[in-house]
Each structure stands twice: as structure tokens, then as C-alpha cells.
Amino acid sequence: MKFSLIANDSKSNARAGFIETDHGIIETPIFMPVGTIGSVKAVHIRDIKESVKAQIILGNTYHLYLRPGLETLKGAGGLHKFNGWDRPILTDSGGFQVFSLAHRRKITPEGVTFQSHIDGSKHLFSPERVMDIERVIGADIMMAFDECPPYPCEKDYARKSMHITHQWLDRCITHFDKTEPLYGHHQSLFPIVQGSVFTDLRKESAEHIASLGCEGNAIGGVSVGEPIELMYEMTELVCGILPKDKPRYLMGVGTPANILEGIGMGVDMFDCVMPTRNGRNGMIFTRNGIMNMRNERWKNDFSPIDSDSELFADLEYSKAYLRHLFTANEILGPMIASLHNLHFYLWLVKEARKHIIAGDFTSWKALILPTISQRL
RNA sequence: GGGGAGAUUCCAGAGUGGCUAAAUGGGGCAGACUGUAAAUCUGUUGGGCGACCUUCGGAGGUUCGAAUCCUCCUCUCCCCA
Known about the structure:
Blueprint: E1 2-8, E2 15-21, E3 24-28, E4 30-33, H1 45-50, E5 57-60, H2 61-66, H3 70-76, H4 79-83, E6 89-92, H5 95-100, E7 105-107, E8 112-115, E9 122-125, H6 127-137, E10 141-143, H7 155-178, E11 188-190, E12 192-193, H8 199-210, E13 217-219, H9 228-239, E14 248-250, H10 256-265, E15 269-272, H11 274-280, E16 283-286, E17 289-292, H12 312-316, H13 319-327, H14 332-358, H15 361-373
Parallel strand pairs: 4-15, 5-6, 6-10, 10-11, 12-13, 13-14, 14-15
Antiparallel strand pairs: 1-2, 2-3, 7-8, 8-9, 16-17
Helix pairs in contact: 6-7, 7-8, 8-9, 9-10, 10-14, 10-15, 11-14, 13-14, 14-15
The chain binds one RNA strand through residues 32, 34, 36-37, 41-42, 58, 60, 63, 90, 92-93, 95-97, 99-101, 104, 116-118, 143, 146, 148, 192, 218, 220-225, 231, 249-255, 258, 271-274, 276-278, 280-281, 283, 292, 294-296, 327, 329, 331, 333-335.
């Protein structure tokens, strides 16, 4: 994997570049659609490629390990072959499930024991095991196994959790170095900065991560319910410490506004379930603001969903029709909204990249931010 | 013609003397959602800011008090001829 920077914004820390992987180039800053179980929910892979124009998608180690399972993934020849996505894939390690499935897991120094949410069976996720699974999945970018602590969280706990994450990281790196890719393409390992909302812990974690010389670095433990100001504060602090010549990935973020702010701080990669999950729940993001498509106000609005968009669905379907699909609980509603939101997110980061290169990112961001954040 | 069942708030459907503006669904309206246990979850749904006012097919009655008991009326459904 190779990361190259082609432009730096003069008024902010935003930068534009590209990542070269064996499955193709990723232009940064980039948004990565989330495809937890090997599917970006409600959207065809073909549409992810041709309409959304995504350059990399996510998969999740925990979910894919439980279902379909390693035998199937190995039999398919890895996730790329299994789901038909031939571009880069990043897999989250299951660290987020340590947080989101907190009531059915137990953390020990060895790793985390999960009780499957599917059939109740017990599974040990150790750093070594997670590396093995991510090798089987075959992701171009493998995330280290971490603990994502909740918010709020006591500082003592945050410190302990961070140290466990660092220890696990050592074991991840050791095991990663000992193992080989299974399908002939290069895989990279990204470590994750933790430290909750405590500046000294974040600093310590970021410095530790920065010293390891990995191919890219991630900021985790954000967007878990903390005030947005704290998320920004932590992101800015950590970006100032992580190496400039490696991609920075802000995990789980976020709203369109969060992403633009993150880009301004020097983040290169984002992922979030928001465009798909909120889309399935009737919320769509546009360059003119945010709409709840279930609201009565769209009932007789026969104008296109988004006349500024180039997406076929945005032009061919009306707001009234999309509202009808949602109120009728018709599956096409979530499909259109998910497609639309992903297309918008990818448009947003592409536009940001364009303005970084053109040198007017900061003024463009200031101009667009209030508009895309408003409720319609 | 004979016998039986029933009419409840937008709909379906509980409730059978006071704790009932009335369970529960559905529908409607609104909100939440940030490395996905999510096509999920939450709130609200007679009027009024309020002490209160108007509601359970219609009219009358019993009672301190009725959607709930009685009388008549109107309408609906089922079974037998």
C-alpha cells in the first residue's frame, strides 16, 4: 500500500491524496460505505460501484466470522470474491462490538469472549485470532483489535482500556508479521488510537501509535455518544500527533458536517452507518439540507428528490413518491434513500477533495456547512 | 316467518356500576439513529394552559355515580324455515 499527498490546504490541515492498493486507488479524503456482513444494506454492489462510485467499503470481522463463517469465506476465496466487490475492502476488527455488544462479552487480558447474538454460542476474540480472521476475509486494510470504551467513562477505566488496546496491538502486529495474505494481494494493518475524551490519554495513545510506523492510523473511541465538541477536540489533538505521511482514519464518523470538520483537521478516511441506517429510516441528506421523508410536508411535493444531483434515482423519483414508499413500508423506499445518501456522501468528499486541490477548501466549507446541516 | 349475536374514541377490538378520555393492535403525526444485534426504536393521537368540558348507535329511566343496569327505538350480522 502506498499513500501519496497531492495537496495541502493553506488555511486548515485538510489534505488531498491517494492510496494505492492491490485492488485499486482510493482518492482521499474518502468516505467508506459500511457493509458489515458483506453487504452494504439495501444497495446492490453494482450500484455501489457505478452510482455511488465508492472506492472502498467496510466489512466486519465479528459479524462475518459468525456468519457466513470462515469456511465459507475461505471457500469463496475471500470477501472480494464472495460479495463481488473487486475494489479495496477494510475490515473492522470487532473492537466496536466490544462496545456495542457490551452486555454479552467479557474482557480479559487474553482477549474478549463474546456470546453470539445469533445463537448464543461463545467465542474468544484474541488479537491473534482476529488477525487470522481478517486474513481469511482478505481485507486490503485490517484494523487492529481494540477496545472501544463507552461514553461517559471513568478516567481510570479509559487508561486501563487504552493500555489493553496497546498490548493487544503489539500482539496484533506480531501475529500479522508472522502470517501471510491468503489470496495473493497485500494487506495492511492499521492501529487504533484510544483514550476516550481525556487529552493526556489521547496524546499518550497517539504518540504510541505514531511510533509504530504502520501503513495507516485510525482514531477510534469517538462517536459513541460524547458531545461533538469533544469529538472534534480529540480528533484535532490526535491528528496533530499522527504522522502526516500516513492516512488517518476517523472511525465511525459521521454526519456530513462532522466529515467536513474532520477533513479540515487532516482526516483522510471516514466510515459511518448513518447514510444507510438513517436512509432506511427515512432520513436523507442533500446539499440543501436534511429531510425526513416520512414527514407529511412531502406528501404532494412532486419535484425530484434532489434536482442538483446526478444520480438517476434523485432525478427520476419525486419526493412525494419516496414519501409514499416510506409510509407504505415499501422496500424500495429504504433502497432509494440508502443509494441517495451514499451517493451524497461520496459526492461530498469528492467535492471537498476538489476544493482542497483548488485551494479554497476552507471558504467552501464555511459556505456549504450551514446549508447541508439545516433541517428541511 | 322463527331463533340468536351485536352497535365503544380514525379503524379493528378490550372493557360490563366508581381506580375509564376509556387496554391492546393498526393507521396518523412527530422524534431518535455516528467503526450496524436496526427495513429498528421512542413519543404522541377528543377539546382546553387550566380547575374542567364533550364522548362509548338514538331517546328516556334507575343510581350519590353508568360505556357498563332497565325500557323503547334505529341499524348490522349469523342460523333455521
